Sequence to fold (114 residues):
Amino acid sequence: MDQTNRLNEFRRLILEVLNMHAQMKGEPAWIQSRVESDLSGDTHRLIDHDPRKNGGTDYVVVELRLFEGKVWVLNDGIEYGIAEDLLEAGIPAEDIVEEFEELPSFAYAEAQAA
Fold:
């Protein structure tokens, strides 16, 4: 599979996993979950919305980014870890980056642009 097809498959699997979590009923019951994708930055988020706080407050539960052919786990609020679901969906372990000591180069570019 060429790199473009591989990344498209990763995107599909990421959205499948995040949508699965968004459809789960959580506690408290009034929390609304949604998936957001920024295709220009290849960033995908699972967001919980609490309509009862300050007119509505969003919390990023999971944030994933495709960068240099790998799935970077930038934020993981899933109790057992989102990587487990990504593995079960078919993304190889060597293509999932969970822990990193230095910020990836895309983080530096975003900080300079701000």
About this structure: Helices lie at 3-23, 82-89, 105-113. The first strand starts at residue 32 and ends at 38. The longest helix spans residues 3-23. The two ends are 36 Å apart (CA to CA).
